[in-house]
Amino acid sequence: MRLLRCSFAGVLISCLLPTLPAATNSAPPLRVMTYNLRYGTASDGLNVWANRRPLMHQLLTNAAPDLIGTQEGLYRQLQELAHDLPDYQWTGVGRDDGKTAGEFMAVFYRPARLEALSTNHFWLSDTPAVPGSTTWGNQVRRMVTWLEFRDRATDRQFFFFNTHFDHIVQLSREKSAELLRRRVQELNTSRPVLVTGDFNAAAERNRVYTLLTGDGFFSDTWRAAPERVNDGVNTFNNYRPPVWQGNRIDWILTRGPVQVTRGEILIAHQEHQFPSDHFPVLVELTLTGD
C-alpha cells in the first residue's frame, strides 16, 4: 500500500492506495470490507454526514473493495453514497420495517466482479422472519442482510452475511451469534461463507467471539491473514486519532474454502475530521476449492 496526500473537493486527506497485483493468469484476490458508516442524522459537529461524505468517498475509491458490508446507513445517506460510487450496486432494507425505515445492513458490491444471485434478510430475534422484531432485551432492532454471489473472475459461488449486533445487551449479542451460526449451518453448503459486521464485542475478549469461532465453525480473517496492517488498532475511533488497545469490534469471518492473504484497518482521516466513527477493516482473500 502507498500513503499519499489526496485531494477531493478541495479537501486534503491521507489516502491509502492499493498496490495492484502483478499480472498473472489467475484472478486477483477478492477485496472484502466491513464498515460502520455512522448514521447520517447524528449531531456530530465537525463530523456531520455532509462533511464526512467526501472523505468516505475518497477512502472507498482508494481502497477499491469489491464487496462492502456496511452498518448504520440510513436510506437517503445510502442513496448519496451510491451516487458517489457509480461502479457499485447496493441492496438492503431498513431494520425498523423491512422497507426504508431505520438503519440498514446495506451491502455494496462491484458488479464488474460479482453477480448477486439472491438477496435475503432476517431479524435477530426469536421471530427472525418478522421485520422490526426484537426479543432479547435490546431496545434497538438488529438484523442480517445476506446474499448469494457468483465471482465472475473465477465462476465460484459463495454466501455473504452482513450484520450489526446490539451495543448494550450482552445476552442479545450472544443470542444473535447463536442465530447467525444456525442460519449458516442450515445452508448445509460446502461453498464459502463470508460474514461482515460490527459485533460490538472485542475479538478474542468476548464470549460472542468464542461462540462464533471457538470451535472453528468460523475463521477470523484477521487472525488468519499472514500480513496485517495496523494490527491492534481499536476499530471504533469515536472521531479520535487511532488508539492501539486491541479492541477490534468490526470483524470479517469466513467458513469453508477461503484463503486469506492480507488484512488492513484503514485509519485515513484529516486532522480532527473522520469518514466515520469506525475504521473500516479490509481483507484480501481467495475462494478456493472446487
Observed structural traits:
about 290 residues; 15 strands; 5 helices; Deoxyribonuclease I, Chain A; seven-stranded mixed sheet; alpha+beta; six-stranded mixed sheet; disordered N terminus
Question: Can you give a write-up of this model?
Answer:
The protein has 290 residues and is α+β, with helices and mostly antiparallel strands. It is 19% helix and 31% strand. The protein has a seven-stranded mixed beta sheet. The protein has a six-stranded mixed beta sheet with strand order 7-8-9-10-13-11. A two-stranded antiparallel sheet has the order 1-2. Strand 8 and strand 9 (157-164) form a beta hairpin. Residues 1-25 have low confidence and may be disordered.
Shape: globular
Note the beta-strand portion. Answer: 25-35%
CATH topology: Deoxyribonuclease I, Chain A
CATH architecture grouping = 4-Layer Sandwich
CATH class: Alpha Beta
Write the CATH homologous superfamily: Endonuclease/exonuclease/phosphatase
Tell me the count of domains.
1
Helix/sheet category: alpha+beta
H and E string: EEEHEHEEEEEHEHEHEEEE
Number of strands: 15
If you average the pLDDT, what whole number results? 92
What Rg is obtained from the alpha carbons, in whole angstroms? Answer: 18 Å
How is the largest sheet built, in terms of strand order?
A: 5-6-4-3-15-14-12
- Helix content estimate: 10-25%
Count the DSSP helices. 5
How far apart lie the N and C ends?
31 Å
Low-confidence stretches: 1-25
Largest sheet: 7 strands, mixed
